[in-house]
């Protein structure tokens, strides 16, 4: 089946008289077993509330089908999914390689938590490709990629990273949140684990927190399960239900986000206030060639670098916006715009571009209204500058 069909058909209740279209929410902590044999055998599917129930299994089945893996496990947030995936494969004395453009909370977990337990983190240039092999030592267990990277949208060569990692016995973990699982298939490109902040595009409505981890093979899946089990992670049935409901429309939403995102990126590229647009789908973007090879499309998240401007003018820009909200996260139906600071999140490389960097999320509003809103902001900025 194609992705559009998988997102509609997967995780649905098995056919029986009067079955619902979607699995209902089943809130439970304790399950009872009808016989002693049932109690002893237990099993993965239904044993205890913390390990999930039918609502969770339905969502996991849908994500697994979308990503093409063997098993998916849920986490209470995208960050928890990242953390559990990292913990599944390291011990004291090990090393992990992390892209220098990674999500800042991922960096903090590596630098502040893993370091306390003797796990070394080395950051690599997102453009390294096969060059990452030079950093892989005998104690390197993980290469962690995020493509495109947070804030600056660096596109990584996942097949090259997979080849380098596997040659030295390391696993490749990929944060695939930006693509929504629709526009990029890391497992098919050689990754071992795919991670999503389902809070974003999976849910799509900015009303719940959830993460997912999908494994390429059974051995990897067992390690992920044990990691989540030992740290006591669990997801509410309500959040699993909201995410599954959101995924039913994921394919059509991603197309709409792409359409608005590309239109906004092209419109912004022509603005005199804009120095550079950070969007992988634009032909003049540094990572466009790899993006075009590996991705089937672009989401609604991208960045722009403005020409240098003072803080009063920048404040005027944001305060004039009516549709673009200032808020963290992204992937919902609404458009967002925030001021970000990539220069604070680099160690292997340096961010040298002058001028404010804005991160925009193109929501599902009408494109003419979105451009008018940004035009209003730029007019307010110009009035202060003048």
Structural commentary:
It is a single chain. This protein is α/β, with parallel strands linked by helices. It folds into 2 domains: 3-247, Type I PLP-dependent aspartate aminotransferase-like (Major domain) (Aspartate Aminotransferase, domain 2), CATH 3.40.640; 250-385, Aspartate Aminotransferase, domain 1 (Alpha-Beta Complex). The protein is built from 12 helices and 11 strands. The chain has helices spanning 3-9, 36-41, 54-67, 78-87, 104-113, 158-167, 218-231, 237-247, 250-269, 288-294, 311-320, 367-385; strands at 71-75, 95-99, 120-124, 140-146, 171-175, 193-197, 211-215, 274-278, 301-306, 336-340, 357-361. The strands form 2 sheets. It has a 7-stranded mixed β-sheet with strand order 1-7-6-5-4-2-3, sandwiched between helices. α1 runs antiparallel to α3, α3 (54-67) packs parallel to α8 (237-247) and α11 (311-320) packs antiparallel against α12 (367-385). The model has no long low-confidence stretch (mean pLDDT 95).
Mean pLDDT comes to: 95
CATH class of the largest domain: Alpha Beta
Largest sheet: 7 strands, mixed
Write down the overall geometry: globular
What topology, given as strand order, has the largest sheet?
1-7-6-5-4-2-3
- Strand share of the residues? 15-25%
Radius of gyration: 22 Å
């Amino acid at each position: 089946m194609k992705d559009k069909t998988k997102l509609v058909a997967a995780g649905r209740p098995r056919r029986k008289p009067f079955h619902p279209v979607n699995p209902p929410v089943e809130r439970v902590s304790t399950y009872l077993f009808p016989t002693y044999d049932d109690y002893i055998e237990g099993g993965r599917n239904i044993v205890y509330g913390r390990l999930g129930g039918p609502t969770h299994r339905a969502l996991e089945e849908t994500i697994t089908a979308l990503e093409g893996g063997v098993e998916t496990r849920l986490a209470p947030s995208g960050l928890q999914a990242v953390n559990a995936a990292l913990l599944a494969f390291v011990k004291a004395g090990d090393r992990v390689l992390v892209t220098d453009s990674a999500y800042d909370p991922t960096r903090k977990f590596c630098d502040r938590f893993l370091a306390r337990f003797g796990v070394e983190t080395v950051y690599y240039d997102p453009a390294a490709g096969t060059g990452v092999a030079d950093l892989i030592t005998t104690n390197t267990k993980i290469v962690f990629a995020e493509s495109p990277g947070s804030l600056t949208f660096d596109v990584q060569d996942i097949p090259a990273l997979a080849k380098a990692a596997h040659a030295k016995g390391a696993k490749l973990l990929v944060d695939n949140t930006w693509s929504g699982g629709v526009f990029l298939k890391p497992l098919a490109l050689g990754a071992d684990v795919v991670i999503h902040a389902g809070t974003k595009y999976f849910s799509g409505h900015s009303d719940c927190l959830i993460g997912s981890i999908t494994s390429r093979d059974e051995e990897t899946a067992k390690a992920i399960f044990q990691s989540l089990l030992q740290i006591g992670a669990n997801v509410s049935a309500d959040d699993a239900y909201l995410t599954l409901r959101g995924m039913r429309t994921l394919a059509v939403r991603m197309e709409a986000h792409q359409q608005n995102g590309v239109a906004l990126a092209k419109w912004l590229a022509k603005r005199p206030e804009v120095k550079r647009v950070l969007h992988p789908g634009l032909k003049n973007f540094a990572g466009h060639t790899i993006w075009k090879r590996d991705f089937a499309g672009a989401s609604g998240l991208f960045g722009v670098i403005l020409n240098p401007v003072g803080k009063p003018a920048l404040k005027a820009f944001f305060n004039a916006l009516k549709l673009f909200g200032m808020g963290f996260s992204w992937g919902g139906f609404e458009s967002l715009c925030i001021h970000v600071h990539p220069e604070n999140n680099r160690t292997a490389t340096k961010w040298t571009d002058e001028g404010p960097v804005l991160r925009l999320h193109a929501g599902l509003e009408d494109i003419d209204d979105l451009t008018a809103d940004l035009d209003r902001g730029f007019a307010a900025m110009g009035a202060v500058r003048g």
